[in-house]
Q: What sequence folds into this?
């Protein structure tokens, strides 16, 4: 990663050289017109600049040779394979990152995305051991364009890297293991489960009465009317809070869990736009109303609101 950033900075550091590089790409009819600068604070920066760098690799090498710069590293088959592999892995992590961000994302979606990514890592290890690289497009292109690259390819090294990455995910998201049974039950309460074990887990995580919870689970799973609505997205809105007090409380808490800071960060961004230097006299009450309208997905019935107001003929 460091040599990539260094090469990009050396090309874009000087205005004249940067202009020459863009003209060179234009003359070569390159896929992209410029390189991207790396920014640590941006979520997807690393993956994007690596993909762009790999796509323009031959043009970058030709430009550096034309200027008499050292391109030994860009000709090293082992380093090029590492570069392509890193580009593919960071691209897959960017895809996961995008799955974890955004509105209407609950903890169930996030557990599913993280578990799927961990399972994919195990699958990738088996694929690499079997010399099947179709899930790594940049790596495949690098192997095809460098005939001697496969001789220096070390299978165990890449498998170890993926294993360490999988272990990192397991350690980082260890809380999901405790939460998953409860989330799975709330997503589909009519699955066959060990009621005593499930009630104990819910009591530990959400401070509810395990004895009452056992009875509520049994009553819910044998409720014919609710069972007919098991595929409805609004199942828990049909559950009576009085009859299923503990279950209803757990369902509300799980639906309110936030797996990322995306909503908080987007709210700050919206507030920066609302309270600009041109609107610095807005009161706290007006700011509160503005941010609520901005973040809410509710659409007012404008026609009804207009009809309810008295029209002024002078206007």
A:
């Amino acid at each position: 990663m460091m040599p990539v950033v260094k090469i990009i900075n050396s090309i874009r550091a000087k205005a004249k050289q940067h202009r020459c590089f863009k003209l060179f790409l234009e003359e070569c009819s390159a896929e992209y017109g410029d390189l991207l600068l790396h920014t640590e604070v941006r979520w997807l920066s690393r993956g994007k600049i690596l993909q762009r760098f790999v796509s323009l690799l031959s043009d970058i090498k030709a430009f550096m040779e034309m200027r008499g710069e050292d391109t030994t590293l860009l000709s090293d088959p082992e380093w090029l394979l590492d570069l392509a592999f890193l580009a593919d892995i960071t691209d897959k992590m960017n895809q996961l990152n995008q799955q974890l961000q955004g509105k209407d994302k609950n903890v169930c979606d996030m557990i599913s995305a993280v578990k799927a990514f961990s399972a994919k890592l195990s699958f990738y290890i088996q694929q690499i051991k079997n010399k099947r690289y179709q899930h790594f497009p940049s790596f495949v292109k690098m192997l095809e364009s460098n005939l001697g690259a496969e001789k220096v390819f070390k299978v165990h090294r890449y498998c170890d890297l993926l294993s360490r990455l999988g272990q990192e995910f397991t350690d980082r998201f260890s809380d999901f293991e405790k939460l998953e049974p409860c989330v799975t039950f709330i997503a589909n309460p009519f699955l066959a489960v060990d009621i005593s074990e499930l009630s104990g887990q819910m009591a530990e995580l959400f401070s509810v009465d395990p004895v009452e919870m056992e009875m509520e689970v049994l009553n819910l799973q044998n409720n014919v009317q609710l069972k007919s609505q098991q595929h409805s997205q609004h199942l828990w809105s049909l559950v009576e809070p009085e009859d299923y007090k503990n279950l209803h409380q757990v369902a509300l808490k799980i639906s309110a869990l936030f797996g990322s800071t995306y909503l908080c960060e987007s709210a700050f961004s919206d507030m920066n736009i609302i309270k600009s230097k041109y609107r610095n006299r807005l009161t706290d009450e007006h700011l509160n109303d503005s941010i609520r309208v901005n973040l809410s997905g509710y659409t007012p019935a404008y026609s009804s609101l207009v009809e309810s107001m008295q029209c002024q003929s002078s206007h």
User: Anything to note?
Assistant: The chain has a mean pLDDT of 88.
